[in-house]
Write the structure tokens for this entry.
Amino acid sequence: MIQRTCIRFVVSFCSLLAAGQAWSQCEDQFPLSNTEGAGTVMCPCFVEGEEAGVVLDVPAEDYPIEIIRIGVAWGSVLGDTPNTIQSALHVYENGLPNPGARLASLEGPAFIDGFVNEFNLEEQGGVRIESGPFTVTMEFMDTNAEMLTAASMVHDGDGCQPGKNVVKAIPGGWSDACALGLTGDWVMHVIYRPVECGGEEPGGGKEPAAEMFIRGDDNGDGNVDLSDPIFSLTHQFAGGPAAGCMESMDSNDDGQLNITDSIFTLTHLFAGGPALPAPYPDCGVMTGGASLGCETSSESCN
């Protein structure tokens, strides 16, 4: 299970160790997914060439959008399978009953057991979606059906929402995964940004005030300590809350939120690693180009 794997990683690691967006580019939005619970259940139920995925949608006023990253939960019962390469990630133009034309594919994604693996589409220009709903899937390279210890796609196990989860079966084609007996929503997400921001260019209005935060203070209590990487991992892999200022969770300031941020913080705190990029250890504003956004100032900086 993903939750169990991530928590075990933090405990083992600690035991061993004793500014802003450019005006021409819209801000990245928080992960868009169907999952409503933190539980995780793996499904060894696919054969080579089959696909599983989610149907997603955003408010009509946000379209057109650009998908820039795709996240897929991958896990096994034991949590110790080798890294696995699958056929591809695909984006389709419609939802159910027929997702329609394939808009883009990312070939050969590699998956790590026990994590929500995120794949960047920006290098190939992102994937533009004109209107919704749309479908995102993963295509299997290997058969894992009835192989109980194999790694596979993960769902949240707390009820399947009709019309939001798909399977492309061989034979059979596209189906609503709920109708096939899936008991939860596939744990997949996309990071997207609107193509048109709807804001004014520099000189046409006042730039909004920069929000204050401390990098690495994930839980917003004003301190950077062990509770912060745990907060971040719980948000990423167990459905925990997000920080009001997401940029505070980007400990290594690379513009992405993933497990490397928690490792960076832990290495600094307990292994003499480099200090976190500014603003740290005091409150400040964003200074780099890449950003996860900061909706509100951290409570500790108010």
